[in-house]
Amino acid sequence: MDDIYHNDAVNHTMEDNTENTAENGYQQPCQDSYQRPVEEQLRYQYQEPESDLEEPVSVGEWLVSMLLMLIPCVNIVLMFVWAFSSREKRSKSNYFKATLIFAAIILVIYIISIAIFGVAISSAIANANF
């Protein structure tokens, strides 16, 4: 049963690793062409922000933003200000850009549906026999 799980390729790899361990005193990690060393990956993933605009938005800032979004007419102006301001944090700017795109899509759907239902209702009224 053990022969099924231990084929020659695995045994050959194990022998190569033990040779590397014997020669160098430690085991060499397997480096494929697509793999980066762990230190390089961690440096890439956990880079310090380049500026204050790269830092994440805090929970308090999001709460204030969401409370301001509850005020009619102010919310529309603030969405454009936060989306296209060069002084706003990048994550907040991207969020409001996506929100504006989503709002534009919904607006187009509403206009199309109102046009379709308006034509349908007007033709129904014109064809009605009172």
From TrEMBL:
Protein keywords: Membrane, Transmembrane, Transmembrane helix
Entry superkingdom: Bacteria
Membrane-spanning parts: 62-84, 96-125
Protein name stated in the entry: Transmembrane protein
Organism encoding this protein: Laedolimicola ammoniilytica
Lineage: Bacteria, Bacillati, Bacillota, Clostridia, Lachnospirales
